[in-house]
Amino acid sequence: MKKILAILIVFITINKISLAQSWPSDGWPAKDSYITNNTMGAFHGTWQWINGTDTVKIYLTTQKVYYPINGGFYWDRIIGWHLYKKGNQIIESSFGYINTPYSNGHSTILGGNEYNSTVLGGGIKDITRNEDCALTLTLNTAQNKLTWYSTRGEGLHIVPSGQPIPPPGLTLPTQMVLTKL
User: pTM higher than 0.85 for the full model?
Assistant: First the structure.
């Protein structure tokens, strides 16, 4: 599922890669090439949102991610992990895997900032629903607040035979402002 999300992100961003990126003008990057991005550092670190007894905490960093398209290439991406608690009860968490390689499949956030250096576009894995969702993270000018906006993917949602139909919505809050710790 993460590979599908990664491929989707490539297709969405392919036509709007910033000049800071070394994306070739004639299509896909060459086999085994590496697209670097040195503009994502402000997103790095631990961010937290608290509202009453609800807490969301995320950890973000940059990793070199392999995309198996056109023979395969590497691309700097923000990856991350999240923790969602209601009171002392953990609702979902990937925090036990912080700083493990993206390739192990345990990170739950993936994105990039090709459109604007202060806006990260990508996705988050709703662990409870086993569903990939769209995610936009926007930094404020002081780079100490991160506005979170997530949505469920549009279109048909297939539920395997014998599985209950999940209620509408997402497990995590869809809008919040996180503070850098």
Answer: no
